Amino acid sequence: MSIIVNIILLPPFLIYLFIVTIRNYLYDIKIFKSKKLPCKIISVGNITVGGTGKTPVVIAIAKFLQQQNKTVAILSRGYGRKTTGTQLVSDGKTNPANWETVGDEPTLMAKHLSDIPVVVDENRIRGGKYLINNFHPEIIILDDGFQHRKIYRDIDIVLVNSNISKMNNRIFSFGNFREPWKSLKRAHLILLTKSDFVVPSKNLQAKLKTIGLPIFKTNTISSSYLLDSKNNKLEVEYFSGKTALLFSGIGDPESFIKTVQNLNVRILDSINFRDHKNYSKSDIEKISKKYIDTNADIIITTEKDFLKIGETDLPIYTIPITMDIDKKGYAHILKLLN
Fold first, then answer.
1. Quick one: which of 12, 147, 170, 196 has the fewest CB in 10 Å?
2. pLDDT per position as a tens digit, 212-240
3. Is pTM beyond 0.70 here?
4. Which residues are within 8 A (CB) of 122 and not within 5 positions of it... i.e. 6 or more apart?
């Protein structure tokens, strides 16, 4: 980052840092108070802007708690949706609502979860009360809730991407951090995500030790099949040796590329859009042109992007993934709940 850009970003950086610091301090000394709801709240969040694998982690924790005979619900803000207020994504039995009305990530969560209601609301307390009044969950998982301190949480889980570089250990304006590193100390545990893709740097390992929290690793598990536009499952072996064009609109496209590399396909090129990309006609045309130029056999994208593409004649496939969390991590969560 050039000196000129640093100078330009310095004023908003200082203002943002001041606001975040003062707000957290007022919560810490109880001048600002968190509202406690009549059920357990587990927050799954991060201190970075995307790219930690939060959605598959929320899904994994929800399924685990369900296996422990807990009644679970999920509450999200619904980033990028075209609506406001309380919106029911799914009651756990019906198909998810249109992603544009509730957000892409809540739609993906609902798609993978059965008998677990999903609600979005920018007012998390209101959304939480809606879930309690209508579904009576024992536990609400608060998606992307680390910075949302208005609602009390029994467990604060923070995700840290193993691929965080030394240069990215900065606050929002100068890197991809929402809060200073020391904010992690108010969490209960850290999940180190995507540790199967990259060995955490010595710098990251040293900084994690300064926090003094339990740390558990997660791994990304690819499915044995790909889905086509009609949700037909095709075994991974079918694509062995084929050439592929990739595209994605996620916070960590490198991890997606590494996932596809494990499929034994030859990646010819990739297009990286911004996170939560809402694909327009011109975007599809850009993908189509690149597909023709590369002469690839197929196109592969993420599940989150796949559900937003709509109908197209392009041979687009997606590979579903799940997050495997260290069993000791699950045991620690149960311990904190009791």
1. 12
2. 999 999 999 999 999 998 889 999 999 99
3. yes
4. 77, 78, 84, 85
